[in-house]
Amino acid sequence: KFANVYDEIFTLFKFENDFFNKFGLKTTFIGHPVYYISSIKNKIDKKYIAFLPGSRENEINQLFNYFELAYKILLKNKTKKFHIFIPTLPHLEKLINKKTSHWKIKTIVITDQIKIEDYFREVYASVTCSGTASLEIAKRMIPQLVIYKFNFLTTIIAKYFVKVKYG
Description:
Elements: H1 2-5, E1 9-11, H2 15-21, E2 27-29, E3 48-52, H3 57-76, E4 83-87, H4 93-100, E5 107-110, H5 113-120, E6 123-128, H6 131-139, E7 144-146, H7 152-161
Helix pairs in contact: 3-4
């Protein structure tokens, strides 16, 4: 029945083709954007900390306090001076520039995909609050701090079932 609905199945990961082929379904591997990111060796001499606040305005508005906190920690750092690099989408650039306008650390907010890739080669570590972005950073082998904010009900349920000191 499934084959009658779809003439062809498009897969994100190569291992999926084997699964669908077992059922006689025609499959084509199209890939996933994270798949095509090449890993970057992390060197100590890199000069940027990437802040990845997400791709939706509500994510930025809800979570930017955490980036503000990270900024303040970097501002106090006397050992090594980093610049902040924030790759974003064109519709969010103005909002992020407004939220970072008072920062004293050099902050680069950029939307150009080619330039973004160049900056990622110079990223020492990342503060990330998006699931997809955390995969992108992991694939690049850049150390990261991942921020997730659960809704109230999910927090209560998770606290009951999950007992970890750090996550």
